[in-house]
Amino acid sequence: MKRALALVLYYGVTSHIQSSDNPGTIGERLNRFLVRRIFRKCGRNVNIRPRVYFGSGRNLSMGDDSMLGQNSIIGSTAEVIIGNDVMMGPEVLIYTSNHGMEPGIPMRRQPLQCAPVCVGNDVWIGARCIILPGITIGDGAVLAAGAVVTADVPANAVVGGVPAKVLKYRTTNGSKASAAAAGTGAAHIAGGNIAFPESRS
Ligand SMILES: CC(C)(COP(=O)(O)OP(=O)(O)OC[C@H]1O[C@@H](n2cnc3c(N)ncnc32)[C@H](O)[C@@H]1OP(=O)(O)O)[C@@H](O)C(=O)NCCC(=O)NCCS
Predict the structure, then answer these.
(1) What is the CA(3)–ligand 1 centre distance, in A?
(2) Is 100 helix (H, G, I), strand (E, B) or coil?
């Protein structure tokens, strides 16, 4: 099936069907069938909740067993890579471009400044988070509900607030040192280059 037809069916029909955590629902299976033909890369068992907008989807890659939350908007002007086992609450916004802000020229006439967003493996993105262009979220991180993420998030950090700050680390004692010792940097983000994570299959 051609991408254009898959997009028409997704936005016109299947994105409106209520789905759930149950991987067997018809809506979820139809969405999965279509997004495999829409996304740049798509892992196994992705779960696309109702009314997610991702533009053409051609810059979006998703790993295995990851989800996009209901009513979320995923920017499409630069690459977005989402790892394996990523959970996402409703109404999350991931943006990949800023407008130019040079004085003296109307901002709407200035070129967009685009930058990719990369989300590691095993990340939980709470409801209504906003992730800004160019951000990398480390493996195992938690973004608290309503966080506005303006800087890279270290592995295993729990961040929240506006702008998001580290609240604690997901370790037995909550310390940054033991989070680093756990050795779970975003393995697929090497030297500033992002690559699709290894599939478990
Ligand atoms: C981030 C979260 C998981 C933290 O839970 P927790 O480990 O129980 O943390 P606590 O409630 O003990 O809070 C720890 C600190 O973080 C702060 N905090 C918690 N949630 C916050 C949020 N959303 N924004 C800003 N700060 C937050 C607390 O005020 C507390 O600060 P303090 O130590 O100065 O008092 C939870 O608050 C959250 O936001 N969950 C997201 C829920 C959601 O979006 N679900 C959608 C379905 S996927």
Answers:
(1) 39
(2) coil
For the chain, the distance separating the N- and C-terminal CA atoms, rounded to the nearest angstrom, is 24
Q: Write the CB contacts of 43 (distance below 8 Å, at least 6 apart in sequence).
A: 62, 63, 64, 65, 66, 84, 199
H or E element at residue 34: helix 26-38
147 in Cβ contact with 161 (< 8 Å): yes
Å from CA of 164 to ligand 1 middle? 12
The Cα–Cα gap between 63 and 71 comes to: 20
Question: Ligand 1 centroid vs 48 CA: distance in angstroms?
Answer: 25
The model's pLDDT over 124-173, given as tens digits with 9 standing for 90+, comes to 999 999 999 999 999 999 999 999 999 999 999 999 999 999 999 998 77
Best residue among 72, 167, 168, 170 to mutate for probing ligand 1's pocket (most ligand atoms within 8 Å of CB) is 167
Asked whether the bond before 116 is cis by omega within 30 degrees of 0, the reply is no
Element (H, E) at 9: helix 3-12
Distance between CA atoms of residues 90 and 50, nearest Å: 10
DSSP category for residue 16: G
Please tell me what DSSP assigns to residue 193: E
Q: Structure pTM?
A: 0.90
- For 190, other C-beta atoms within 10 Å of its C-beta total 10
